[in-house]
């Protein structure tokens, strides 16, 4: 990283500041986006110092002056749902997928998440850390400056804490901002098959320790057929809430169990996946502050036909974010730009909705609404200069990296 104190970005063709609306953006407001044309942004000591027309600012003094050549500039993206820390990989499961073996059947046979659990238990803290840093670099290369990271490949005390400590250290040492989530309730390991409640109790026993060591802000659970039921999820998450954790849920991903409804009932910060949410679930979501974090990359990768009903959710008035769900099994990509294309093509979200979904709403989904996802004076200078003429171009031209330069707190992070 360089250590320039002031950087002036001028001759910006389109600047998205993403601050048209107060707080998380819901319903039809998601489609309202103002664009500042021919603008400039001055970053000083890591913070946005001034925003204004390029003609008025381009003569200003700065340690570095960058001609953006009429390109697009936006806030750094926020990826609000990743399984960043894991051992091994699962390319050997690709053939099973091709033969049509369902994701939950692979899991039932001890593969899937449970295969990554074995690799993660075996991996040293150092190995996990180096791997997490590798993936964080790649996440950043796609324009992301704030990321959420879940545990969930341990399901035993030692490995869950190992994953959370790795995430914490990675967050401290990597320029990206990292928000940590405890997902100890991610699958049922062999020893607990007959008594999943016992596994949940053991994971809940870690809550206090995780709080005391400041290892996670959120608690998450995989509520799904063959994993945890609605009743188990309610009890477990309520305990976490009572201890002061904010909540997330892997909800209504494959079978419609009513996870969306439960996320709303518990006041979860987000309900994630929601691919098979019912009409009732969608209407509850729309009447709540719970953000729907939709993961179209996962549906694409699992080869499933049913993408989350983003249109119905937005039309009902919900707040929607999108994310990679980066993990070694159901969505093996760090590329949030690709997810933006899938959101457009498969969920029919408009470019304006998509930009809200990867900036301001994604930031609110991880309680970073006051810090990330917008460009305004006094805020941390997390900014991306894109090799693109306008904001519609990013979801349109799919599968490649459009980033020209990523600035994290005013410092060049990637170009
Ligand atoms: O969000 N659905 C559960 N958890 C992850 C997948 C994890 C894995 O397959 O390793 C998800 O899709
Ligand atoms: Fe996930």
Automatic annotation (TrEMBL):
Keywords, alphabetical: Cytoplasm, Histidine metabolism, Hydrolase, Iron, Metal-binding, Zinc
Cofactor dependency: Zn(2+); Fe(3+)
An example molecular function term from Gene Ontology annotations: imidazolonepropionase activity
Pathway involvement of the protein, from the record: Amino-acid degradation; L-histidine degradation into L-glutamate; N-formimidoyl-L-glutamate from L-histidine: step 3/3
Location of the Amidohydrolase-related domain: 72-410
Single GO BP term: L-histidine catabolic process to glutamate and formate
Chief localization: cytoplasm
Residues the record lists as binding N-formimidoyl-L-glutamate: 153, 327, 329
EC number(s) reported in the record: 3.5.2.7
Localisation per UniProt entry: Cytoplasm
Record-linked CDD domains: Imidazolone-5PH
Alphabetized Gene3D superfamilies for the sequence: Metal-dependent hydrolases, Urease, subunit C, domain 1
A Pfam family hit: Amidohydro_1
Binding site for Fe(3+): 81, 83, 250, 325
Residues bound to Zn(2+): 81, 83, 250, 325
Superkingdom assignment: Bacteria
Keyword Metal-binding on entry: yes
Cofactor note: Binds 1 zinc or iron ion per subunit.
Catalytic reactions on record: 4-imidazolone-5-propanoate + H2O = N-formimidoyl-L-glutamate
GO cellular component terms listed in the entry, alphabetical order: cytoplasm
UniProt-listed InterPro entries: Amidohydro-rel, HutI, Metal-dep_hydrolase_composite, Metal_Hydrolase
UniProt binding sites for 4-imidazolone-5-propanoate: 90, 153, 186, 253, 330
Family indicated by similarity: Belongs to the metallo-dependent hydrolases superfamily. HutI family.
Function summary: Catalyzes the hydrolytic cleavage of the carbon-nitrogen bond in imidazolone-5-propanoate to yield N-formimidoyl-L-glutamate. It is the third step in the universal histidine degradation pathway.
Protein name per its UniProtKB record: Imidazolonepropionase
């Amino acid at each position: 990283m360089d250590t320039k104190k002031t950087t002036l970005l001028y001759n910006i063709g389109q600047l998205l500041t993403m601050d048209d609306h107060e707080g998380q953006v819901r319903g039809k407001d998601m489609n309202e986006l103002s664009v500042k044309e021919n603008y400039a942004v001055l970053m000083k000591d890591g913070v946005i110092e001034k925003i204004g027309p390029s003609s008025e600012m381009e003569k200003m003094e700065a340690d570095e002056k960058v001609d953006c050549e009429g390109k697009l500039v936006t806030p750094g993206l926020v990826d609000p749902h990743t399984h960043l820390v894991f051992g091994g990989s699962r390319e050997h499961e690709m053939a099973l997928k091709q033969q049509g073996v369902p994701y939950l059947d692979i899991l039932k046979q001890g593969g899937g998440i449970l295969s990554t659990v074995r690799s993660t238990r075996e991996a040293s803290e150092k190995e996990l850390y180096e791997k997490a840093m590798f993936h964080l670099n790649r996440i950043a290369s796609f324009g992301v400056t704030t990321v959420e990271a879940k545990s969930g490949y341990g399901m035993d005390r030692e490995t869950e804490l190992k994953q959370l400590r790795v995430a914490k250290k990675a967050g401290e040492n990597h320029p990206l901002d990292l928000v940590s989530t405890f997902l100890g309730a991610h699958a049922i390991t062999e020893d607990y098959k007959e008594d999943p409640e016992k596994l949940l109790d053991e994971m809940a026993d870690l809550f206090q320790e995780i709080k005391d060591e400041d290892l996670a802000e959120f608690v998450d659970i995989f509520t799904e057929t063959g994993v945890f039921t609605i009743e188990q999820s309610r009890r477990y998450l309520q305990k976490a809430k009572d201890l002061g954790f904010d909540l997330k849920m892997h909800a209504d991903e494959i079978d419609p169990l009513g996870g969306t409804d439960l996320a709303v009932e518990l006041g979860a910060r987000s309900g994630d996946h929601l691919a098979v949410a019912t009409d009732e679930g969608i209407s509850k979501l729309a009447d709540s502050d719970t953000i729907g974090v939709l993961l179209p990359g996962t549906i694409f990768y699992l080869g499933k036909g049913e993408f989350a009903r983003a249109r119905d959710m937005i039309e009902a008035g919900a707040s929607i974010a999108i994310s990679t769900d980066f993990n070694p099994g159901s969505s093996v990509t760090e590329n949030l730009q690709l997810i933006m294309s899938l959101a457009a093509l498969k969920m029919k979200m408009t470019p304006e909705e998509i930009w809200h979904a990867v900036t301001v709403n994604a930031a609110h989904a991880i309680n970073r609404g006051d810090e990330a996802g917008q460009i305004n004076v006094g805020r941390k200078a997390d900014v991306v200069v894109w090799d693109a003429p306008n904001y519609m171009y990013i979801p349109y031209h799919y599968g490649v990296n459009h980033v020209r330069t990523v600035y994290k707190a005013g410092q060049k992070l990637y170009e």
